[in-house]
Write a structure and sequence with these properties.
ten-stranded mixed β-sheet, two-stranded antiparallel ribbon, 31% helix
């Protein structure tokens, strides 16, 4: 890190983003082949090379890939030379972004490359995700992610917070918004379809698909040199709920609310929110926790209902929010990422364009 001091919390920005066109299957591509075009694109957009990057961090899951230490193979997409300072999180890439952000704040780098990828099509993602449940009581019952989300949705219906037509409206709005997103897997409104697990229909659930995303972070004047309108990270925080579903109120998300509070999301209104809500019912929970009203443009990219590459979806939310700031379409945006069943772990980041006098 150059200069006499480490950057402050508001001195780090997302300066570039790139992602794949998300697809139902990528059997014709390895993870390296899927990642390399994205990594090249995000670096070329800034004029940086691998040698210019101070820290590299990635997010993925060996459970999805079906083999141990799969992320070491993906590093071939970054390149074997020059040597890099590198780390990996067995989480959604949004948590890799958090690690890179802290690394820059600590003054150990002034630029960072963050990437994530997910190949959900490799197996039954509904079954794979049961492995994140409590191993003593829940996991032996094999309740999959859709069944658990349906329990959450039914709790919302029973509490009077939503109804099935309202959930259908969330799905329709999200997929209509995806018409303008060249990366989306599903575009345009479609019938809700049959029940998958009541009360959730096909349209209430995310698609299964593969994809990758990468972002570049930079500090202070370096960010201004690399990007005409940096998306400054004004705050970021992540919190977790209790592991046991039985001790949680599934109609609320206090961890999201707490993360948003610590990220500074409630100090001033946001105009855009990219929410990692794989199910329509979870958008209802997040809107309430984040105090988002109809004046906020929620998931203008289409959100996870349009593309859901597991382990990359949260970082995609940050990339989509940052891209809107870069284009001048948003002044202050919120990005949210989640991991675990029924919104168990939640991360919130607040991004802003350059303040003008």
């Amino acid at each position: 890190m150059t200069g006499d001091r480490a950057p402050g919390p508001g001195d780090v920005a997302v300066v570039a983003c790139a992602q794949t066109a998300h697809r139902r299957r990528t059997d014709d591509l390895s993870e390296v082949e899927m990642l390399m075009p994205v990594l090249h694109e995000v670096l070329e957009s800034t004029g940086l090379t691998t040698a210019d990057i101070g820290f590299t961090c990635s997010g993925s899951s060996d459970y999805l890939a079906g083999r141990p230490f799969s992320f070491t193979m993906a590093l071939d997409g970054v390149g074997a030379w020059p040597p890099i300072a590198e780390s990996h999180v067995e989480m959604d890439g949004a948590w890799a972004l958090y690690e890179a952000w802290v690394k820059i704040l600590a003054g150990e780098a002034d630029t960072a490359l963050v990437y994530a990828y997910g190949t959900s099509s490799s197996g039954s993602v509904r079954d794979v995700l049961t492995r994140q449940l409590d191993p003593y009581y829940m996991a032996p019952l094999w309740p999959d992610a859709v069944a658990l989300a349906a329990l959450q949705a039914q709790a919302l219906l029973d509490a009077g917070h939503t109804d099935e037509p309202a959930l259908a409206a969330v799905a329709a709005r999200s997929r209509e918004a995806a018409l303008g997103n060249p990366h989306a897997q599903l575009r345009g409104a479609r019938p809700q379809g049959a029940y998958v697990v009541r009360p959730l229909r096909t349209g209430d659930c995310p698609p299964v698909g593969d994809g990758a995303v990468a972002v570049v972070l930079a500090a202070g004047d370096r960010a201004r040199d690399l990007c005409a309108r940096p998306a400054w990270i004004r705050g970021m925080d992540h919190r977790a709920e209790a592991h046991s579903l039985g001790v949680r109120d599934l109609t609320d998300s206090p961890s999201t609310r707490l993360a948003a509070e610590h990220a500074g999301a409630f100090t001033r209104p946001v105009d855009t929110a990219e929410l990692h809500a794989p199910f329509t019912s979870q958008e209802v929970v997040l809107r309430r926790a984040l105090r988002l009203d109809d004046r906020v443009d929620v998931n203008p990219s289409g959100g996870p209902l349009a593309a859901n590459p597991v382990m990359a979806t949260g970082l995609v939310r940050v990339a989509e929010a940052a891209a809107r700031v870069h284009r001048g379409e948003s002044r202050r945006a919120l990005a949210h990422a989640t991991s675990g069943p029924c919104l168990q772990q939640n991360l919130v980041a607040v991004l802003e364009g350059e303040s003008r006098a």
